[in-house]
Amino acid sequence: MPKRVDHEERRGTIAEALWRIACERGLDGASLRDVAAEAGISLGQLQHYFASKDEMLVFALGHISELATRRVTERLRALPAAPAPREVLRETVAEILPLDEASRTGNLVQIAYFVRALHDERLRAHAKEGIPALRAFFAGQVREGMARGEIAADRDPDAEAMLLIALADGLTSHTLLDVCSPEEALRLLDAHLERLFTR
Amino acid sequence: MPKRVDHEERRGTIAEALWRIACERGLDGASLRDVAAEAGISLGQLQHYFASKDEMLVFALGHISELATRRVTERLRALPAAPAPREVLRETVAEILPLDEASRTGNLVQIAYFVRALHDERLRAHAKEGIPALRAFFAGQVREGMARGEIAADRDPDAEAMLLIALADGLTSHTLLDVCSPEEALRLLDAHLERLFTR
Q1: What's chain A's average pLDDT?
Q2: Is the domain covering B54-196 a CATH 1.10.357.10 domain?
Q3: ipTM surpassing 0.85
Q4: Residue in B108, B159, B188 nearest the CB of A162
């Protein structure tokens, strides 16, 4: 089905154009026309794929979260067999933080989307979608750490998971603003984990 | 000097119009003309005070941070004389979190500004301005906690301060998105402080 491949390629090209704009000048005020120009296609061609800026953002976000999941999975695979929960949590949060260009771009698109979602209930539902899965994954790791005696038995796995997600988000903002260097963000993450894990 | 009072009043009216727009639909795409219409003045009148959207945002941010500082100060004054560092930290972060409408509005304007600052070095300098002062204030409280034997002596006050700021920011995003309720955000803050303070 060569037609289908073409469509996917075209969507990919459009998403990449959107990311370049997000990185260089942000999506505030960027129109479908701007994205079409950046992708080197006509507005009509772009509208064949995406009827609105929000549709395009939802697609770009889906792509980003797929790429991020793939990067985390690869990173965890590179660890020794059966890695300790502390390592899994560290590597996963490190992959979320904007420590390299790819992750920085992904974070900028996510923030552009987040800001729109604040004022649109339908978009908000999408923005919140990934969080329960991430929270459940982190809580599972905390539970595993407790079972191994590496985390105090009186911790609440669900609260610890949400704290880690909030911390990852806060460190992301401050790294994007150059308040924290990538190295400092990692050091702060380690300081937090050091307090969560008793050994 | 009645003229001066008029000017300040007018600036205040404009800032309030900007806040209403930020709250209702965000500043993404909101023009000077939109803000003038919301404030019930002409575009020309508005431009007498602010030549650009960014100038207006800088002013609105300054106002917000003044109001926030005043709220924190009042809140700390309401505590018993010489409050413990733990209480000071809790009350200050609680005042930053979007737990009520005023603070929610302030946070929305700050986020709109933050997103623009990501792509503009000059604005970024402004956005980062308040952080060293807040960080120094938090680090001072942590040091005080250590001196009182309430925080383990091996903690790094500066790192703990930045962790608290990052956590406050992350909890803010998740409260604005309705991932956390205001009550849950407070509970998570308490869980974090519970681990920082040994007694």
Answers
A1: 87
A2: yes
A3: no
A4: B188
